[in-house]
Design a protein that fits this description.
- With 331 residues, the protein is an alpha/beta fold.
- The chain has a single domain, classed as P-loop containing nucleotide triphosphate hydrolases (Rossmann fold), CATH 3.40.50.
- The chain has a five-stranded parallel sheet, with helices on both faces. The chain has a three-stranded antiparallel sheet with strand order 2-1-4. A two-stranded antiparallel sheet has the order 9-10.
- α4 runs parallel beside α6.
Length: 331
Amino acid sequence: MPSPQARAAGLGEPLLTARGLVVGRTHGIPAAGPLDVDVRGGEVLGITGRNGAGKSTLALTLAGLLPAHGGEVTASATLVGDLRVRRGRVDDPFAWSSRALLTRIGTVLQDPEHQLLGRTVRGELEVGPRALGLPDAEIARRVDELLQRLRLTALAEANPYTLSGGQKRRLTVGAMLATRPRVMVLDEPTFGQDAVTWAEIVALVAEVRDDGAGVVVVTHDDAVLSALSARELPVAPADLGSQLRLDRPFGGETCPKSTVPPESRAAPSASEPCVGSTADGAKRRVDRPSGDENRPGRSVGPAFGAPPGAAPPGAAPSGAAPPGGTPGATS
């Protein structure tokens, strides 16, 4: 296993750049900003701050799942590649479809259950690669490697909703890594892990960093920042009395768009409270937020119905750190 602190020989170009960025989940009410942010290849950017500071909202905006409320997020030409978009700027990640995001910006949400889709652990790891149309042999190779590295091999045929909170978190990290995105955005990826799996996740993140990926980690865990030699970006709540220039008018909540291609989604539930259209025309939804600590992930998880035979969300322990583990905290 490589040393997490063994950094790449030199930092790459900025893959994502934000200038004067104001983020929020309710139109006209900023959660954080204005901020200037650079996400560079070969580097880990650690977003820190107290609960409710806007860390998760900032991460979702950098990931292209929420629109900027002010300023802008710009992707590099390397990250854009030959992409075309139907509307908006081609270098604005929020204008990208879910399929376009798969190999460009991968995201691990704060609550693992909000992005589980597969009927089995193996099936969950296969969702992204199958959406990309990869050959079966390549899919099997990637999935088997991730199952082993994340110590999930014995659970390959288990229903994801029956896993422990720590196992679900490892699974969502693996599902993101399966598509090998150039930028990774992870919200509390080590929360609920014991010492062994904590080290495995940190080592995996270090590997993709050293391969030139840009990594954004939201965390309260100083040990993660130290192990990954992360550059820290402290975030504080926006001053609601300040004169921030907001590019979006006052209104209702902004729904994060789905990270999953349309053909991989189940039918939406009419009972969900927040519905909108993503950049690629697919429905998205989210629990109504009352603050940044509220989670956005209804876009890809139980909102569309758990797999048949699944345990109800919350039936399995979620987020509890095993004895001797490395607990985190929600952001």
